[in-house]
Amino acid sequence: MTAIFLIGLREGLEITLVVSILVAFLVKTGRTHLLRHVWAGVAVAAAISIGFAALLQAGAARLTFTQQELFEAIASFVAVAFVTWMIFWMRRMARRIGAELRGRLEEAITLGPVAVVSVAFLAVIREGLETSILFYAAAQGASDSVRPLLGVSLGLATAVALGWLLYVSAVRINLSRFFTWTGALLVLVAAGIAKYGVHDLQEAGALPGLNDLAFDVSGAVPPETWYAELLRGMVNFTPAPTVLETVVWFAYGIPVLVLFLWPARTPVPSPTPAS
């Protein structure tokens, strides 16, 4: 639930910021009559994202055990790829995403209402589909279906509340620091999802080593305790992981975390020629 809450918070705040940029641009330029087109695009994107998540769940339920394990493994690796691409993309685009969105919306206004709906739809659908895949991958292995739904709902609701407060300037958040910390935590979540994907492949017989354990600390960290559950939810910690699971967790988590936290190079301005 903790990891899924983080996914809902991070992805939800990105969606909220994108929508608030579009709404604020229309309000400040006196084009409030176009707001209904923006909300229409957002609603369609949200409906498709929810339907996609339901389709993933329904499709997996009809598979055999081996097929389901393979399907969940593929979904896990796709989710890891999405997380990796998303956090680095946001770090690179955070400073100019507002100007880019306003430019697209300005062009769309000249083309008509359908174009405005399309801009809002395209701005939201990518994050929505990412959230659906991440939710499905992170929810695998949960003891029930209520806690994952509760976690993502609380995350999205918190993101909407924060987005609204930011929009009305009732609260100020260092967004650069927020996305840095949540991005680092998501790297650990993604490492856990990758580990879970490897375990699925081992259970399906596609990879060897299902019984080759890296360590077993079940006595020191009983799986039913709250702290074991917290670790499992955040980084997919299991008291008795296989060697291959452990290797994949470290092989992905450590290098990606270092690259993400490594200070970005600031471009050096070219010297101004003397007059």
Automatic annotation (TrEMBL):
GO MF terms held by the record: ferrous iron transmembrane transporter activity
Topological type in the membrane: Multi-pass membrane protein
GO CC annotation, single: high-affinity iron permease complex
Keywords on record: Membrane, Transmembrane, Transmembrane helix
Keyword Transmembrane helix attributed: yes
InterPro entries membership: FTR1/Fip1/EfeU
Protein's UniProt keywords contain Signal: no
Main location: membrane
Regions crossing the membrane: 6-26, 38-58, 70-88, 108-125, 145-166, 178-198, 243-262
Domain of life from the UniProt record: Bacteria
One Pfam family per UniProt: FTR1
Protein family according to the UniProt entry: Belongs to the oxidase-dependent Fe transporter (OFeT) (TC 9.A.10.1) family.
Protein name from the UniProt record: High-affinity iron transporter
Organism in which the protein naturally occurs: Actinoplanes italicus
Native organism taxonomy: Bacteria, Bacillati, Actinomycetota, Actinomycetes, Micromonosporales
